[in-house]
Design a protein that fits this description.
The complex is a heterodimer of chains A (144) and B (91). Chain A has 144 residues and is mostly helical. Chain A contains 5 helices and no strands. Chain B has helices at residues 5-20, 32-35, 38-49, 54-62, 64-86. Classes of the chains: A mainly alpha (144), B mainly alpha (91). Chains A and B meet through helix 4 and helix 5 of A and helix 3, helix 4 and helix 5 of B.
Chain lengths: 144, 91
């Protein structure tokens, strides 16, 4: 398993890089509507920041900050939200993943579809982020 | 039998290279891929989805079913790794 390597350079570089990467990950997800970006890329970026934490803090401290069970739960719940976003319009009388029929009061038409894309992008981001951290944890735990 | 692999690969390569001459040019407006649904996406994406980035509106809205499958594949890969490598030991 990955262990903490005592070095002031690594500590300082990671403490500066991790928040920046996380902020950039959020920007990439949110900016998906207007430019390059979206759920997949933003999710992977966020997962990279967690993996960097794992590498520089070691197992105990980083598992306290972001438990492996949270990664699995995040991956599964992201997928669940995506599925529900697909099924909700069916319940409201539309087709599968037809965001125009999402049962959200107050918005309609293009705005509703915009909202549907936002929900889906976030759920993709959660799912991808959780899966990447899960993969890293499983592979790192396997190296004994 | 191993010497047979090289001429077979060369033949396959020649066939593939010949086939590429039949492909439309990149960005050709009359190509079948650009003639059916692409103009619809380009014209209607702002009006229907309010999203300036056509890639996002195609990825998450018009072809949302495809993206659902992609996300499922990633989740399934992660879960398969978990199940194979951790075999009942939990996280």
């Amino acid at each position: 398993m990955i262990e903490r390597y005592e070095n002031v350079i690594i500590d300082i570089v990671c403490s500066v890089m991790v928040p920046l990467i996380q902020l950039f990950a959020l920007y990439v997800v949110v900016h998906g509507h207007y430019g390059p970006g979206g759920g997949f890329q933003g999710g992977v970026l966020f997962a990279v920041s967690i993996i960097l934490l794992r590498l520089c803090l070691g197992k105990e401290a980083s598992h306290k900050k972001f438990p492996p069970k949270l990664a699995a739960a995040l991956a599964a719940s992201g997928m669940l939200v995506y599925m529900l976003t697909g099924l909700a319009p069916m319940a409201a009388g539309g087709a599968f993943l037809d965001y125009g029929h999402l049962p959200i009061p107050g918005v309609s038409g293009a705005e509703l579809r915009f909202l549907g894309i936002t929900i889906v992008e976030w759920s993709i981001a959660f799912s991808v982020c959780g899966t990447m951290v899960l993969l890293f944890d499983v592979l790192a735990e396997g190296m004994r | 039998m191993r010497w047979l692999a090289v001429p077979v690969m060369a033949l396959f390569l020649a066939l593939m290279l010949y086939a590429t001459t039949g492909l439309p040019l990149r960005g050709e407006p009359q190509a079948p891929a650009n003639a059916h649904v692409s103009p619809y996406y380009i014209e209607k994406t702002i009006e229907e989805t309010g999203t300036p980035n056509i890639v996002t509106s195609v990825l998450a809205d018009y072809r949302g079913y495809d993206t659902l499958g992609e996300t499922t594949v990633i989740l399934a890969a992660g879960l398969a790794c978990l199940l194979i490598l951790r075999r009942g030991k939990g996280l």
